[in-house]
Amino acid sequence: MEPLNDSLFGAQSLESPAALASALAPPAAPGHFDELRGAATPAAAPRQQPAPAGTPLHDAALPPPAAPESPGPATATPELTPPWARFFEHLGSGGFTDLPRRAINLERQIRDNGVTYNVYADADGPQRPWSLDLFPLIVSPESWTQIEAGVLQRVRVLDRVMADVYGPQQLLAEGLLPDALVRGHPGYLRPMHGVKPPGDTWLHIAAFDLARGPDGNWWVVSQRTQAPSGLGYLLENRLAVSRQFPQAFEELQVQRLAATYSAMMEGLQRMCPAGSPPHIALLTPGPYNETYFEHAYLARYLGITLVEGNDLTVRDQRVYLKTLQGLRPVHGLIKRLDDQFLDPLELRPDSTLGVPGLLQAIRAGNLLVANMPGSAFLESPALLGFLPALARRLIGEKLQLPALPTWWCGERAALESALPQLGDCAIKATYPGYDSHTSFEAVLGSRMSRRELDEWAGRIVRQGDEHTVQSYLPLSQMPTWAPNFGRGHIAPRAVMLRVFAVSDGPQSWRVLPGGLARLAGADAQIASMQRGGSSADVWVQTHGEVDRTTLLQPHATPASLARHRAPVTSRAAENMFWLGRYTERAENAVRLARLVLDRLGGEEPSSRPLLEWLHGLSTRNTLIAPEVPIGTKARRVFERALIADLGNVETGGSVGYNLRCVRQAAAAVRERLSQDHWNQIVRAEEEFLRRTAEQEGEERDGSFAAGAALHSLEAASAALSAMTGAQTDRMTRDDAWRLLSIGRHIERLAFLSSALAAGFKGGAVHEVNGFEAMVALFDSTITFHARYQQRRDVATLVDLLVLDGDNPRSLAWVTQTLRGRIARLAGSAPGKLTALSYELPDPAMWTLENLCEVDADGQYPALVQLFEFCETAAYHVSDAIGIRYFTLTSESLRSVGV
């Protein structure tokens, strides 16, 4: 396919955009339905362009296309369907010439919004930007009518299957369901037998993967019921793509999505057990799950709380959320966690993702879960072959939306029917993803030699129940924008459509008028996001009036605003607290390391008290190992030991270790951070570790190594300044932020107090170099010399570093700020302190005369006592905050909002 060169762009003025698109876009592969033209490409038609590298599973039986020929005239290609013609006619003023710019804007929007999909096998790291194509998949009203009716039927059948399997089990007794596919499935949960779900509804969210065949009809390929993904990503797809084509979006009368999400939430709220208003949360495995972005996005959109397993606790067969204000009842959960990890007491005992006692709360009828646990057996591909008979038995109807012919080889008749067809079918695992059964990636018979087919046939004969055979279907292909060749070009790519049925009340469902289109990746045989596939928005047209319902209320009310103000969970609060502490620790480590290297490498000889003070601080803060000799005995050994450990991520206290801890704490509260803030944190760690690794790999003399280390520390200091600036100026002052700030100031108070105490006890403060070093450690050198000129007595140091209420690194400022933040955290009125605030000393009681009193030995007992008290109080307050707000023990074991 030729790129959209200047001559083709110029042709736009001579013919309509639809005609130009028809000329530029090659047809689908032979034998495949062409979404752009509304018909299958004849098998004998020449290809105008090679198929894209990597086709999905059901597309992989095609032989490799012949070398492309020159594109024929536009009249040789069938015209576009009316919807696609209208789409290209309403591209906007820029037309085709504007598509490259829009593709760049779309990519930038995805990146700026931080839309990611974690890929565990990705060599470039655990996160990559979400992949979204510029063009949408357009579904006509007629096609959607077929899909909607068929999906509604199927979700009703699946829901009744679960009701029977966990109830009377008549289907098993009548032989309509094989026992091996239910009781023998690892996803069948015996603890759920006899449970009566709220509203008698087992399935609240079900996803169906559909493929369009050459005849233009849609077929079911698979179904997802445990924790189907896509409801959040498709929202982001809609927002991003509709902004690129606003005129076409309006012209095509695309159905909106918000009304369905609103109906789902209203239905869940009505079915929730006692609670007015009911509290619903979204349960996520955490930030390292591949679809975590979607979990956070969906929770924000729906106005519900995003929680992890350790955010919840079960008391008296009821589920509670651990918040800063205490235990808050939870009445409903939208789970994005596989069933086996839900409850370590009754399911997988090694799970750290679930909630102990959760199944007991479900059995007691005190919790609605979407979907109810135990639906994993419905996802087996083998079940598709039994659903037609189950539909006739359970709802008395014939399924309107067929599934691909599927044979479970655990039945002899099915096995004998499937074996002769292996060369034209896909072979799938009956129980995929379970270690207790044979699990393998799906394979295509058409890609295997005769010998390989015989080997697979032997395996199937020996373990028939572990294998399911499914018919092959050439997937339809939709036009996509390929920007990686010249200015870009239109290329057909195979597509599968995932649609969602959601409950809007007891035994009532509706189909989301849209979906998630998944495109074939570049390196796999399946349209899978984990294998590098892409996605597209889905525009479902309507002949009627477009429902313009929105979850963004035009007239906000106190109730609607409160719905979007989720409580701060104890887990999020604890991670924010430690994000503040580790940020401050990293800053302290950087400042101390720079001070040590500067003093050790300076031209003026350092005094023994100064070197002892620096060595003691470095050891206490684990910048060096305890066995490293003091600088007065082996200055270069001290220096080299400190440099060698700067990037050591295994040593607690090193700069590298603290930067890694900052990133890990930030990852746990990723949804609370701006994209810029997160990028700063990631870059700071990566850059510092890269610099220190380069230093280790090069031969350097001592002075050069120290110089390189100082440059690395300066860069880290600048990065940390950007981080703290984001924390100070770009975050909402809620309780989570207060805990971040409290964490930082607790760490600062303890560090500065211990440094001052050591400086006075060892006498370093009485040396000129020691005095200057102490002022530098407090980042107050410029202020000190501007205010006191050349004076270097204890009184001036105490005045600036201890008593100055305007110096953010003085003990008075830190202590007073801490007292106020702790009081606000507890909900006190402005200016009113709490009992925990009084655990910290009151700077108003400090006086210069008292603190500067000298005893007979020339020591400052009141001053040293204050330093020790401040350090002890900092750690005591830290422990008290953990007990009260994070672990929720002792007097905090109260519930709120019951």
The share of residues in extended strands comes to 5-15%
Q: What is the rounded distance between the termini? A: 65 Å
User: Residue ranges: pLDDT <50 for 5 or more in a row?
Assistant: 1-14, 45-76, 120-126, 890-898
Largest sheet: 7 strands, antiparallel
Output mean pLDDT.
Answer: 85
Write down how many β-strands occur, each being a DSSP E stretch of 2 or more residues: 22
Shape: elongated
Tally of helical runs: 29
Give structural notes.
The protein is of the alpha+beta class. 41% of the residues lie in helices and 11% in strands. Strands 4, 5, 17, 18, 19, 20 and 21 form a seven-stranded antiparallel sheet that branches. A four-stranded parallel sheet has the order 7-6-11-12, with helices on one face. Residues 1-14, 45-76, 120-126 and 890-898 have low confidence and may be disordered.
